[in-house]
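help with this:

***
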Amino acid sequence: MEVGIIKPNVPDQLVIDLARRLYGLEVIEMKKLVSFDDQNFHIKVAKEHHNPHISQISEDGYILKFTNAVRSAMEGNFDSIHAGLFHLNKKGIRAPLPITNLEGKTWKMEKVPLLNEDSLCNISAPKICGVHLLKFIPGVPVSTQEYTADILYDWGVFLARFHNAVQDLDHPGFRTKTIFWNLEHIPELRNLMDGLEDDRKKLVLSVLDKYPSEIEKNMDHLTRGIIHGDFNGHNILVQMKSTEENANVISIDGVLDFEDMHHGTYVWDIGLMLAYTFMDCKTMDPLEGAGHALAGYLSLRYLSSLEMSVLKTCMESRLCQSLVICAYSYRTDSTNSYLLSTAKNGWSRLEKICNTSNECLLQKWKKVQENYESKNV
């Protein structure tokens, strides 16, 4: 499977033309957003339009999303994502809603320019991308905030709410979807490590070497369902809310980017959330910070002893995955600064957690959870 090279490279004028042709909307303001392997535009449009499926124009605007060619070619990809978005909104989870186009559908395949298109002659995937329009939901990414214990705890609560909401969600597209960023593909990182410094390669291999005994042999015993697949700080939104005492509090209440949503293990979703809270936490011991997020999750949902025991390896695997794939992809697209964001703290944090025993980590997290439980007595 190709990684990070068949990305749309859409000029502004084409965004304007497609918004008009597909959705009957006139773009009056546009901003290109950073992304890994898709291309997204935040657009605001004129109130006058000729789309019979839109009763009222959103003042917050829309996201016109161009999905990379590999995922666009996956059967059922867009239908499953959109089914998930409609389902989540009905369950009270704030997520973008798909907008119906002039053909009465929520997505359309279009031929668009691709990044490094001249070098893609040997790529078997169709050089067309799925285009869909999503209602923009306001808020700022949690990654822009200082990670306090309260924010980290709420982050975990929100993932638990998400998992509760998708308990009764199913769509065949989620089960047939091949997501490279899932737990099952971790061993394939061995094929992407050319160019890594020796010490970093050794660190990654230390994680990959224990995958068969800790993850693979236990896969059938890990609870499965529909998972988000990328519950990181760029995809989780916060809003400022006022209390009755006129105090301002930050509330985590929105989630973006459902391209990696698939049928997988819940513990993988939790592990990757913990990996990102751990990687970006600067206000306290980052391992303790991850413990606050885990405590939030456990306040609403249960994890078995097996699932608890593999969380550390899931965290390490996600950090390896992000660091290795981003380094690999950066060699293809050196203009994409987003690909370097993980590397800022990622390698040092990966070394820190690899040098921490599982027993020590679980004990640290147990103390954090017990502290919350004592407050609720």
User: Anything to note?
Assistant: The chain has a mean pLDDT of 91. Residues 66 and 131 are 5 Å apart (CA to CA).
